[in-house]
């Protein structure tokens, strides 16, 4: 049985003192609902802690931390910087937009004008790097730390291994999430700006907004939140951080929820960047066939029950986060957690958005590869595993400890009452991502898979985690 986490710390802290603050502040009932939403999600999934921020009426009205940040920090506080991973991408994109405004580069410049040796560099534009339409293969599609991540790497090392492979598709013809593209973009920023990316961001963005992010590679140790992992429904375990260098411009930042909220408020106010640049970042980039999935330059734009929403998620080793902005409503929700399993960060986001806007619709069913996924799931809960169905990296992940936790925790649940696809299949990092929901009466589990393309494709990832 999971222990319900209690409130650790809270601040009610507007960034300024608007005359409308009383009308915009959370009511006692709303604050109680926030507590219930967060505590329930943490308890159901086993996520150790969460740090949240809520913006309403263009003002930060709540910043609060719950649960255990680490073995050394049993009570989390809003002042602790959590790793935000891919939520960093919007800052890398903003750096490019600032350099374009300075007249030092153009979004339509090709990669080859700045960096040699990148496959398709003479055809890939900076805009395509930032919109995930370059065709460069993603170097980290897995939701776990694969074997190579135990050793340090440089941005150039990432490019040498992944950005010199054949393109997955012709630039501009498809959308595929690619951390590799952002590493390329970050190196271009450094070359054009003449300084490290983080230094540029601090000088041009963070200092001006009163933000104090740090490199996530140094946000480790007893003074910082600890990342946690879980094998199926086994015990929550401390996660070993990846070695230095693996996230860079694709996800190098650690910050507080309040820091990210300050950025969200700047977005609402069209401050720091020009209004035209904010709009450009939020404008979905179209493929050559005229279609788009809503992704702009480092952010996803869409609608949420009739409200415009600008959002992004992030996953580091041991951390998950979600940043959601309703710009027309002057509202935002930031959720940072120190677990890379479960859907607590999504459930908390949905619950908090439901306070400022209606809740989201459920995901669609894709109905693909169901039998094969069920076969592997049944093997895991039964204590067996046909390793021929897995890639080298997936076999690395399923250690004896992992297999034992899967077998012990899943086998005890008995026979599932339901096993369904949870979302449409999509391409990432050369693999096909498919997600599933497993039901046991009143309990639901989530399965997140990546597999090689084709009917006989092996699983690169098969993770089972608690769902809210």
Low-confidence stretches at least 5 residues in length (pLDDT < 50)? Answer: 1-23, 359-366
Number of helices: 14
Distance between the termini: 14 Å
What coarse outline follows from CA principal-axis ratios?
Answer: globular
Whole-angstrom Rg: 21 Å
Order of strands in the sheet with most strands: 1-3-2-12-11-10-9
CATH uppermost class of the domain at 370-466: Alpha Beta
Helical percentage: 25-40%
How would you characterize the overall build of this protein?
- It is a single chain.
- The chain has a domain at 370-466: Roll (Nuclear Transport Factor 2, Chain: A).
- 31% of the residues lie in helices and 21% in strands.
- It has 14 helices and 17 strands.
- Strands 1-3-2-12-11-10-9 form a 7-stranded antiparallel sheet, sandwiched between helices.
Q: What's the short version?
A:
The protein is of the alpha+beta class and 468 residues long. It has a domain at 370-466: Nuclear Transport Factor 2, Chain: A (Roll), CATH 3.10.450.
Keywords:
468 residues; alpha+beta; Nuclear Transport Factor 2, Chain: A; 7-stranded antiparallel sheet; 5-stranded antiparallel sheet; 14 helices; 17 strands; 31% helix; disordered N terminus
């Amino acid at each position: 049985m999971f222990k319900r986490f209690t409130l650790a710390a809270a601040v009610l802290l507007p960034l300024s003192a608007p005359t409308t603050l009383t009308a915009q502040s959370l009511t006692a009932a709303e604050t109680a609902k926030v507590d219930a939403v967060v505590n329930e999600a943490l308890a159901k999934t086993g996520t150790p802690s969460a740090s949240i921020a809520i913006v309403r009426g263009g003002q930060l009205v709540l910043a609060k931390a719950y649960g255990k940040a680490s073995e050394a920090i049993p009570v989390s506080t809003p002042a602790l910087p959590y790793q935000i991973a891919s939520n960093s991408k919007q800052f890398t994109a903003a750096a490019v937009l600032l350099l374009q405004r300075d007249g030092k580069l153009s979004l339509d410049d090709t990669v080859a004008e700045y960096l040699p040796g990148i496959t398709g560099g003479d055809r890939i534009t900076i805009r395509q790097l930032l919109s995930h339409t370059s065709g460069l293969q993603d170097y980290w599609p897995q939701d776990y730390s694969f074997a190579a991540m135990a050793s340090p790497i440089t941005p150039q090392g990432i490019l040498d291994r992944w950005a010199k492979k054949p393109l997955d598709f012709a630039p501009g013809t498809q959308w595929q999430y690619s951390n590799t593209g952002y590493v390329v973009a970050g190196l271009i920023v450094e070359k054009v700006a003449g300084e490290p990316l983080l230094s540029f961001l601090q000088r041009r963005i963070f200092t001006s907004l009163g933000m104090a992010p740090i490199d996530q590679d140094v946000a480790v140790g007893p003074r910082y939140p600890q990342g946690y992992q879980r094998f199926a429904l086994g015990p929550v375990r401390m996660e070993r951080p990846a070695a230095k260098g693996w996230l860079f411009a694709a996800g190098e930042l650690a910050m507080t929820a309040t820091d990210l909220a300050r950025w969200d408020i700047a977005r609402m106010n069209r401050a720091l960047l020009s209004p035209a640049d904010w709009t450009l970042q939020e404008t979905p980039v179209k493929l050559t066939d005229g279609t788009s999935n809503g992704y702009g330059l480092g952010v996803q734009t869409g609608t949420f029950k009739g409200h415009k929403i600008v959002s992004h998620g992030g996953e580091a080793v041991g951390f998950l986060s979600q940043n959601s902005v309703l710009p027309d409503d002057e509202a935002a929700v930031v959720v940072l957690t120190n677990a890379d399993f479960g859907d607590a960060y999504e459930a908390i986001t949905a619950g908090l958005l439901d306070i400022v806007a209606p809740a989201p619709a459920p995901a669609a069913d894709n109905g693909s590869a169901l039998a094969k996924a069920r076969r592997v799931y049944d093997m895991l809960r039964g204590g067996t595993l046909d390793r021929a169905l897995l890639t080298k990296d997936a076999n690395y992940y399923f250690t004896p400890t992992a297999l034992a936790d899967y077998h012990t925790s899943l086998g005890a649940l008995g026979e599932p009452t339901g096993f369904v696809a949870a979302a449409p299949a999509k391409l990432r990092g050369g693999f096909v991502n498919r997600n599933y929901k497993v039901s046991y009466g009143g309990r639901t589990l989530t399965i997140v898979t990546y597999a090689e393309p084709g009917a006989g494709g092996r699983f690169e990832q098969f993770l089972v985690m608690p769902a809210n």
